[in-house]
């Protein structure tokens, strides 16, 4: 929406996220000379006790085949991700029956 910074969250945050999610939650498209910086303020996904834990993937670009620059599950706070170019997208994969709170993060377009 043309904002240079803001906050984004997982579905239903701070309540538990729904099961069976496999979608691109957020797409960030900057201006030509910008990069995108994400900071995960709160992060609480299912603990990886199975072969299919809940996780998010951050890709360096808009295409689903863009390079993965971060992949997270479990809990963490303060983690930062910076794109190499002007575009970035965040994917969330959930198949568990043991959902958690999800995440809250900030984004900023930097010149």
TrEMBL record:
Pfam families: CUB. GO terms for cellular component: plasma membrane. Keywords: Disulfide bond. InterPro entries: CUB_dom, Non-NMDA_GluR_Accessory, Sperma_CUB_dom_sf. Residues 1-110 form the CUB domain. This is CUB domain-containing protein. It comes from Capitella teleta (Polychaete worm).
